[in-house]
Design goal:
41% of the residues lie in helices and 17% in strands. The protein has 413 residues and is an alpha/beta fold. The strands form five sheets. It has a six-stranded parallel β-sheet with strand order 7-6-13-12-11-10. Strands 3-5-1-14-15 form a five-stranded antiparallel β-sheet, covered by helices on one side. Helix 2 packs antiparallel against helix 5 (104-135). The longest helix has 32 residues, at 104-135.
Amino acid sequence: SMAYAYRYTGRVDKPSVFDLFFRKNPFKGEFTIFAGLGEVLRYVHSFKFTDEDVKSLQDRFPDWDVGFWDWLRKIDTSQVKIYAIQPGTIVFPRVPLIRVEGPLGVCQLLETTMLVLVNFASLMTTNAARHRLAAGKNKILLEFGLRRAQGPDGAMSASMYSYMGGFDGTSNVKAATLYGFTMMGTHAHSFVSSFTSLKDLKKRTLKSSDGKEVNFVELVGVKRDLLDPDHAGNEGELAAFIAYAQAYPRGFLALVDTYDTLNSGIPNFLAVALALHDLGYKARGIRLDSGDLAYLSKQARKAFTATAEKFSVPFAKLTIVASNDLSEEVIYSLNQQGHQIDCFGIGTNLVTCKNQPALGCVYKLVELDGKPRIKLSQDVVKVTIPGRKEGYRLFNKDGNPVLDLRIPVGHQP
């Protein structure tokens, strides 16, 4: 509608400048990470209206001037210039993330999609970075949010920008293959509950690392007798762990909380892990998905250490993965409780940005035909800063940033 009015009044080709920026850091925090520029540039480069697009609009607005449709068919971005901050940079409110220069009509048409591409990307990257800060640099972070994201597009974007924010891997197979990310995941509770006893195991053997065929089920049974002589653990769970280890002898990581984490899951895991060790393999670890994660992780670590000492095996540092609706706040709480978790699988609170689901970037006209433009408001935060401007970050003698400075384009800072 604005593009039509601009052309109708002869203003569509006036040189214009727009700033894309945000007014407040998300999550009640002190920083934001800029992301999404790559997608913005691809969008601007390919921007056009097809004959089908134009016809669809003509059908809805049959009374509009015919010349407008001809203009729309010929429109391109050859006269548009994009100036932007480097993606991945820590940024602050009101500093332009992107400056768009070009014909007024074209630049106006770019607004909505550019905001879509920057808003969620920057919000998601910032959220991921905050989780990284909570977990610390030495913990592994996995993005587990595919099932909880807002649709397939939201899921793919979340996987992409969790990486930019400092995550190590994703359970999203499509994203991992498309973007070259590390693919990580475990089995679900349904895999465990699909087995009811050792009789469900059709395959009884496993080749050792040097190629010898061994009765793996029998070997696990021997280890179970040593660890759990009363056989208190769930037999179906043990069968599931054996089956999973047969499929992944070099990457066995078991979800241990389907029935009873301490009295069934961990003993069953250790029985399978010891059998794998005898065959020349090394189990990866366990995943905890419910209960008191700090307490259970500490108890699991004690069990691993005790098993390592009793059987002279390198189990003390087996990986403990935790999931179960984790968030930035939960991770800080776990830190205070002295947890023994090595890896966090974070889903819903990460990919939906539950604490703040929108960043609030805006796209404002700041110059037209060489003259500054301003938006006034009784709400001071909504008053725009007019004119073409550049942002500079000033550092002290120790190399630490102290402030961001905005000055008119062409002026020396």
